[in-house]
Design a protein that fits this description.
The chain contains 16 helices and 5 strands. With 397 residues, it is an alpha/beta fold.
């Protein structure tokens, strides 16, 4: 089935939106895919390849997703040229940015000899063991570093310097997502506390479970913009998640809340955007969201839009679904469309109405059900692949 470019969504009928998740699969194709995946997981590579080949060669309705099974089987067998061709066939129909990044890495491995050094994708992965050890040192004084937008204080000079650099990198990424690339001319104070005890003692209104917190407070003397983090984790080692997730997550919350001001930002959108800003994708969220939706216990999309902290039955599922839906929407909109969407929500539009306005399509009562179906199909398929291919040095790595 041919894919529809996301830029066309704004001018096509609303039914086209459902194709953005890859389109619906016939029951026989779903059974075939499940059989091929199970055969692959069981090490029955001949059977898996045969089943997947049949799905790709279906004359009336080929299944592009089956190319990924073929690619993995061929890669496992050392048939790198044939695996690379299968990866290319899959990429031609894949609309998930996360899966495309993972598949491209697999394709590069097939096209060239294994690299002598890896190409780390997150800040913590770029650090050597000796650098991590240095970052774990807690000194008896506070060091301060500053940049265009940040003043960072930490009990380690290298931590202060590194957090300052990464905060600027995170802010650029966040402004691209939330502000449509517009500048954010403000200053934030960041406090990195030695451990959780110090964090809870000094961080303002931080809940017991929090790994970081942000403060946006209006006072007679001006606006307080502040982020509190921890240097060490519970095991007494440097908290690498602080760099990859907590710092960009809390910074995103700060930018989001200032952007919305006195307007209401739905909880799922607030948390989804903050998770989207993180430097590292948490595959557990993808798996959890897909599993919950496949089991039919994920709740309606409208309920997700209206969720509040007080009525969360399962916070982990809520966070996973929030990330899944917001990233689904962000991947399928242009930067300008996504900025318009946020502006409409800020102005008081419902999520459903804000999306239609951002895409400049007329109101349609069938929009929300079709949007929900497209997202659910996408989330389930994405989780299905990640779960099936998490074997050895699988696609999750």
């Amino acid at each position: 089935m041919a894919r529809t470019d996301s830029l066309i969504v704004a001018v096509l009928p609303i039914a086209v939106f459902a194709t953005l998740a890859g389109g619906s699969m016939r029951a026989v194709d779903i059974d075939g895919m499940q059989a091929a995946i199970q055969a692959y997981r069981n090490g029955q590579y001949d059977l898996a390849e045969g089943l997947a080949q049949d799905l790709t060669e279906n004359e009336t309705d080929p299944v592009p997703r089956a190319w990924l099974i073929l690619a993995e089987v061929r890669r496992h067998r050392g048939q790198y040229d044939r695996a690379a061709e299968a990866y290319r066939q899959y990429l031609a129909s894949c609309d998930s940015a996360r899966l495309r990044r993972s598949v491209r890495r697999r394709l590069q491995e097939c096209e060239a000899p294994p690299p002598t050094t890896n190409n780390p994708s997150t800040p913590s992965e770029r650090l050597t063991p000796s650098e991590l050890a240095e970052l774990a040192e807690v000194r008896d004084r506070i060091y301060t570093e500053s940049s265009e937008h940040f003043i960072v204080r930490a009990p380690n000079p290298k931590v202060a310097r590194l957090v300052t650099e990464l905060a600027e990198d995170s802010l650029r990424r966040i402004c691209g997502v939330i502000l449509g690339g517009q500048a954010w001319p403000h200053t934030v104070e960041i406090y990195v506390w030695a451990d959780r005890e110090q964090f809870l003692k000094h961080a303002e209104d931080a809940p017991e479970y929090a790994g970081g917190s942000f403060t946006l407070r209006y006072t007679p003397d001006g606006i307080v913009r502040r982020i509190d983090l921890t240097q060490m984790d519970s095991d007494g080692t440097f908290d690498a998640a602080m760099l990859d997730r907590k710092l960009p997550h809390e910074l995103a919350h700060l930018v989001i809340h200032e952007f919305f001001g006195e307007s209401h930002c739905p909880l799922f959108l607030d948390e989804g955007l903050a998770m989207l800003a993180e430097a590292e994708v948490d595959h557990k969220r993808i798996l959890l969201a897909g599993s919950a939706l496949a089991a039919g216990d994920g709740g309606s999309l409208d309920r997700l839009f209206r969720s509040d902290r007080a009525d969360l039955d399962d916070p982990e599922v809520f966070y996973a679904k929030s990330f899944s839906f917001v990233s689904f929407l962000h991947e399928r909109m242009t930067q300008e469309q996504f900025r318009r969407f946020l502006e409409h929500v800020k102005a008081g539009s419902t999520i459903e109405d804000a999306i239609q306005r951002a895409l400049r399509i007329p109101p349609d009562e069938s929009f929300l059900p079709q949007l929900a179906a497209a997202w659910e199909d996408h989330a389930i398929a994405e989780a299905q692949y990640l779960r099936a291919l998490d074997v050895g040095e699988g696609i999750l790595e």
